[in-house]
Every structure is written in C-alpha cells, then in structure tokens.
C-alpha cells in the first residue's frame, strides 16, 4: 500500500463578530470512495492541505498550502493532531493509499481570502472565512471537524488563562 504524508491548517482570525476560520471549496467533487457527506449539504467545504514536499517540515507545508489555497499568510500556533485514513486513487493506478494529514492551528497574519493564483483554481474553486462556531456544521469531512473542535478547545483554554 502506498503512503502519503500531508499537512494542513486551521487558520483563525479574530474579527469584530468573533473567531473566523479559513476554508476552501475544492474544485473537484469527491470520489465515491471518499468519506460520505450529508446529502443536504450544498457544497463541499474543507480545510486547506497538501502533500509535504521533500525536505519540507509538515508545519512548513501547512503554512505554504494555506497561502496557496486561501491567499492568506498565517503563522504557527500549535499542532492540533493527525488524521489517518485509507483511500483508493481515482486516477492513474487506482492504488490503495494510506494517508496521514497533520493539522496545525495557525494565526492569520495578512492577505485577502480567495486572492489565489490562477493556476490554483484547478484545485480550489474559492476560499472563504466562516464563523468558527459554524465551521463544524459546514465542513464536509469528520476528521477535519475534529480538528476544529481541538482548535476551539485550545482557543478557549488560552482565552481563559
């Protein structure tokens, strides 16, 4: 079984109306092998993530992928955890792949959401801010919802200290 190592970010920004999180609407629909989603959901929303390049640390990948897929620059706060799953490639060799995605909590620094390079539009239909408290309901994948829960818990803990 092939292995893939990816990293992604939960980018938070505190606005006048509370915490916001950067999410993406991928360009492609998920394959039938992808985790199921609610049929009432109008669009697929996910956290920005991508493969770790050779010589790159996962936290660097998370920051790079966030910049490429959302248009915003963010800085590392803390590692939230890993999501592990297997899938079958829907392209090429149709091989079964074991994937690990490390997620990091990132703080928004600069940039405009959805200000992404034209070549990224192949992967990302759009990027947007959503209220953190709505993001669990709006995200598609269970593992990513768990990362949001961890981010919320961390932010509550830090705000209380």
In short:
With 161 residues, the protein is α+β, with helices and mostly antiparallel strands. The protein is 24% helix and 42% strand.
**What spatial form do the alpha-carbon principal axes imply?**
globular
Counting DSSP E segments of at least 2 residues, the number of strands comes to 6
Distance between the termini: 45 Å
**Total discrete domains:** 1
Low-confidence stretches: 30-41
Largest sheet: 6 strands, mixed
Give the CATH topology.
Nucleoside Triphosphate Pyrophosphohydrolase
Q: How would you describe this structure in keywords?
A:
alpha+beta, Nucleoside Triphosphate Pyrophosphohydrolase, about 25% helix
Give the SSE map.
Elements: E1 2-15, E2 18-26, E3 49-51, H1 58-70, E4 72-88, E5 96-111, E6 124-131, H2 132-138, H3 142-160
Parallel strand pairs: 1-5
Antiparallel strand pairs: 1-2, 1-3, 2-6, 4-5
Question: What would you say this structure looks like, in words?
Answer:
The chain is of the alpha+beta class and 161 residues long. Strands 1, 2, 3, 4, 5 and 6 form a six-stranded mixed β-sheet that branches. Helices cover 24% and strands 42% of the residues. Mean pLDDT is 91; it is low at 30-41. It has a single domain (2-160), classed as Nucleoside Triphosphate Pyrophosphohydrolase. A hairpin with a 2-residue loop joins strand 1 and strand 2.
């Amino acid at each position: 079984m092939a292995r893939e190592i990816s990293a992604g970010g939960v980018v938070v920004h505190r606005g006048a109306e509370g915490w916001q999180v950067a999410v993406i609407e991928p360009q492609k629909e998920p394959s039938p092998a992808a985790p199921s989603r609610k049929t009432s959901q109008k669009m697929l929303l996910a956290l920005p993530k991508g493969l770790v390049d050779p010589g790159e640390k996962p936290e660097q990948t998370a920051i790079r992928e966030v910049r490429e897929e959302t248009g915003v620059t963010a800085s590392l706060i803390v590692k939230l955890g890993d999501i592990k799953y297997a899938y079958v490639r829907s392209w090429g060799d149709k091989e079964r792949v074991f994937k690990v995605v490390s997620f990091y909590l990132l703080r928004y620094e600069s940039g405009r959401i959805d200000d992404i390079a034209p070549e990224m539009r192949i992967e990302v239909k759009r990027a947007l801010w959503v209220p953190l408290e709505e993001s669990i309901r709006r995200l598609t994948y269970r593992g990513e919802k768990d990362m949001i829960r961890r981010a919320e818990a961390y932010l509550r803990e830090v705000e209380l200290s």
